[in-house]
Amino acid sequence: MYKKNQIQELIAKRAAKELRGSCVVNLGIGIPTLVAKFIEDENVYFHTENGLLGVADVDENQIDPNLVNAGKLPVGETIGASFFNSAESFAMIRGGHVDVAILGVLQVDQSGQIANWAVPGKNIMGVGGAMDLLVGAKKVIVTTTHTSKDGKSKLLRKCHFPITSTRSVDMIITELAVFKVEDKTLNLIELMPGVKLEEVREKTEANFIVRIKEGAK
After folding, report:
1. Minimal CA–CA distance to 50: which of 34, 72, 31, 29?
2. Interatomic CA distance for residues 193 and 176, integer angstroms
3. Are 154 and 106 in contact (CB under 8 A)?
4. What digits encode the pLDDT tens for the residues 86-135?
5. What is the pLDDT of residue 4?
6. Which residues pair with 142 in a beta bridge?
7. What pLDDT does residue 59 have?
């Protein structure tokens, strides 16, 4: 059985495979932040909505307290990185200049709509740039554990929490499976290592179509 950090890295590593060639990528809070450690292509540029294009890992001995990402975690900068204010950063997002956004979620429904900014009755961080990224990013990938802490499916027929946007995401990656969203329908295209289809069916409330490619089991 995988530990929590192993599960998160498994999901992040699979998401990293979707980033190829020259592209601008925005990483959300949580599992998405781990994706950067699995990228070796120098043509993948990471963007953060608080104003940096060219985000890099930083050695703990070289942390600059003034240099953080949107989740307030310390980051480094690549050679040639660009700094700008928040208004310009969101203009980049809304203007369609972010190629891929990788987001965490609280829930996702079978049409690909997500809820990731509010839990009724609870005080959480809020929406951040998620709404803007769902509208402006060319491709949106969700990275999430398949179930919540109490074992309930996070892939639902309909989200119970307030949705973040009416736009459907393009892909959902969990520790159990990979789904593509096409025509507001979930398509199971890949099982994660060691996972059986029966387990995915058992732990998924949402309806989905099995379209596993040859060699993807």
Report:
1. 72
2. 8
3. yes
4. 999 999 999 999 999 999 999 999 999 999 998 888 877 666 789 999 99
5. 84
6. 103, 172
7. 86
Whether 217 shows a pLDDT value over 60: the answer reads no
Dist. CA 214–CA 75, nearest whole Å: 39
- Got the DSSP string for 139-173? EEEEE--SB-TTS-BSEESS-SSPPS-SSPPSEEE
Check residue 178 and give left, alpha or beta (phi > 0: left; psi -120 to 50: alpha). Answer: beta
Catalytic positions: 49
pTM of the predicted model, to two decimals? 0.93
* Residue labelled with tokens 């190629």: 99
Query: Which DSSP state fits 9?
Result: H
Q: Determine the pLDDT at residue 62.
A: 87
Question: SS3 for 180?
Answer: strand
Residue that has been written with the tokens 């554990």 in this structure:
145
Give me 150's structure tokens.
């109490």
Contact 104, 142 (CB under 8 A): yes
Give the position of tokens 């995988």.
Answer: 2
Alpha-carbon distance 18 to 211, whole Å? 18
What fold is seen in the domain 4-210?
Glutaconate Coenzyme A-transferase (3.40.1080)
